[in-house]
Structures are given as C-alpha cells and as structure tokens.
Amino acid sequence: MNDKFWDLKKAKQDKMINGALKxxxxxxxxxxxxxxxxxxxxxxxxxxxxxxxxxxxxxxxLTEYSARxxxxxxxxxxxxxxxxPFFDFQYALTxxxxxxxxxxxxxxxxxxxxxxDIEADTYDLTKEHLSLYRDRLDALLEMSxxxxxxxxxxxxxxxxxxxxxxxxxxxxxxxxxxxxxxRYVSEVTDMIRFMEKLYNRS
Length: 202
Prior knowledge:
This protein has helices at residues 10-31, 34-41, 45-52, 55-77, 86-103, 107-113, 120-130, 132-147, 152-175, 181-201. By secondary structure, the chain is an all-alpha fold. The protein has one domain (55-201). Helix 1 (10-31) packs parallel to helix 6 (107-113), helix 3 packs across helix 4 and helix 4 (55-77) packs across helix 5 (86-103). The longest helix has 24 residues, at 152-175. It is elongated, with a radius of gyration of 18 Å. The mean pLDDT is 90.
C-alpha cells in the first residue's frame, strides 16, 4: 500500500474503505470488480491503483486494517473486564460490534468471509491478519465460559448459534439499507436474553 493514503482526509479514507468493504463483503474476492469498488467509493480506478497497486493489495490492506480496528474497539469495550461470565461477555461483544459497524457497517461481514475465496498468493498477503480478531474472540470465549463455570462445549454451541444470529441480523439489515447499530444491538440482545433464559432453565 502507498503510505500517501494516510495523507488523505479521514472522510476520504473512510469513503474508500467502506466502499471496498461493501463490495468485498457482498461479492467475495473473486467476484468483486474494481469497477464496482471505485463506483461505490466515488474515486477513479487510477487513484485506487495508485494507493493499493492491485485488487489483492487492497484486500490485504482491508484485512489488516479491519482486524486491527476491530481489536481496538473490542479491547476498549472489555477493558479490565476480561473475566466476564459468558452471557455478560456476549452482551459486551454486541456493543463492541455496534461501535465497529457505526463507522464501518460492512467490516464484520467482511471479516467473517475473509479468506474464503482468495488465491494462494493473496492469502500469503493476508494470513497473518486473518485470524487476529478470531483468535482474540476464541480466547475471550474460553475465559467467559470459565468465569461462568460453564462447560466449554456448551459455550461453543451457544456462541455458534449467536454467531449465526449476528450474521443474519447484520446481513439482513444491510441488505434492507436500514442498518442501525442501535437496532442491531436491540435485536441481538433480545436473542442473547432468550438463550440465557433457556440455558438457565436446563
């Protein structure tokens, strides 16, 4: 990536980042065209290649940037609260995700699918960042299960179900062009409460 990208105004940077995240999240790497990306970001193709050199270079940048940005927001929300019991962790995670999507609506959807359809050489550019956020979530999940004295298998199963809920809500709200972080938090929180009641009754 050309470091001159960081000399742009933040609004211009975010317009380019959000445009690319949207197209990659919706279409995957192989089917995302640079024509669609530049149209969404309101820039020329020449400018895109000036800053990122290639579609693979842009994808690698987005993977690293997304992982690091998401980690900052997650760690900020959970500062000194890493021993939260399982369901309290799920509530906190939902708030952290809303903070991420308030600035970058497609970022979590992009990260969920990142790496699924990329070629080997592109994977080499992204592999050290692909698991950064996911590994952190797995570690926090393990700690939250321990804090709640919950069997690890139960935690994984419920977390897996809630992950599907999060993906469904994110994709549906974005598809409707009615995405709202507050609505996302409300709908996911309702499902977490429901799962918590079910688990506590068992």
